[in-house]
Design a protein that fits this description.
Blueprint lengths: L6 E9 L2 E10 L4 E6 L8 H9 L5 E11 L6 E3 L1 H18 L6 H6 L5 E3 L6 H45 L1 H24 L6 H14 L3 H19 L6 H20 L4 H21 L4
Parallel strand pairs: 3-4
Antiparallel strand pairs: 1-2, 2-4, 5-6
Helix pairs in contact: 4-7, 4-9, 7-8, 8-9
Length: about 290
């Protein structure tokens, strides 16, 4: 079970002669950032709206919109003429000074706060209950969307972890060949530099053992294998908010893969390491999309 950070939910609910619409959408973000777009007379309820949403939503850049439309047209809304004129005078004066066109001035003023406002100052209790009902349904749709997206991400990450495990399983044969080739190359270099008769074979074997210990990748293979298993076990767990933990495990996987590449001394193993890194980068990209 995994939740995507991307989500969408929408619900429209009739109430008397109005239609109440609630919409929630979210995008990726390391932190929780919530923006509300609500009618002016709902401002007193903003704190409660945030509380209701934040109890059900974790992480992400969240945008929520509540729209109330009257079936009787725009008679519930009015234009603050005095404020409109003030904005127009000030902006026209500024436009003249800067030699800017005034074509979109009216549209811009109408979007400014309090220029167009509802006549209703308070929300009826019944209307507020209808808003909360629409919000809960919207959150349900939103969570279903996140879960569906999360399932797709989870399947992709499982596939990529299995690919890393497959690459890891192919290292052993090349590691055995690597030791043999390394021994042969070092011996050949010594013969060319010192001459065969001057090589102390016992000392050579000691140096080879010391060198092979420094480039041994047994620990890295074991730890990487364990990290892969741990990653899959976390995906199997029932709780949904696991993005941070998966991110930490992926960092540890990357650490072992990098060390494996640094110690490889084999073009074949390096190719396997490149494949692992490619899969891990895609896993990290996917983790960035999860809660």
């Amino acid at each position: 079970m995994l939740l995507s950070m991307t989500g969408y939910g929408r619900e429209s609910l009739p109430f008397k002669d109005k239609t109440i619409t609630v919409e929630i959408r979210s995008l990726n973000s390391k932190f929780t950032d919530m923006r509300l777009k609500i009618p002016q007379n709902y401002k007193e309820k903003e704190t409660e709206l945030r509380r209701v949403v934040m109890e059900r939503v974790e992480r992400g850049k969240i945008d929520m919109m509540i729209e109330v439309k009257s079936h009787q047209g725009d008679d519930e809304y009015g234009l603050n003429a005095a404020l409109f004129k003030k904005y127009y005078r000030e902006l026209s004066k500024l436009a003249d000074e800067l030699a800017m066109p005034k074509g979109d001035l009216m549209t811009a003023i109408l979007r400014m706060p309090n220029v167009v406002a509802t006549d209703a100052d308070e929300i009826e209790e019944e209307e507020w209950e209808a808003v909360l009902q629409a919000l809960q349904t919207t959150l349900h749709h939103f969570e279903k969307f996140r879960l569906a997206e999360g399932n797709v991400i989870e399947l992709d990450m499982r596939k990529r972890v299995h690919c890393i495990q497959h690459f890891l399983s192919q290292v052993d044969p090349y590691e055995t060949e690597r030791v043999s080739r390394l021994r042969q190359r070092l011996h050949q270099n010594l013969e060319e530099y010192l001459g065969k008769e001057k090589i102390d074979e016992n000392r050579f074997e000691q140096e080879i053992l010391f060198y092979l210990e420094k480039i041994d990748v047994t620990e890295e293979k074991v730890r990487l294998g364990q990290h892969c298993i741990y990653f899959l076990e976390e995906l199997d767990k029932k709780y949904a908010q696991k993005g941070r933990k998966l991110s930490f495990i992926s960092q540890e996987m990357g650490r072992e893969i990098n060390t494996l590449g640094a110690k490889a001394y084999s073009s074949e193993i390096q190719k396997l390491v490149v494949g692992m890194k490619d899969e891990l980068e895609k896993i990290k990209e996917q983790i960035a999309n999860t809660v």
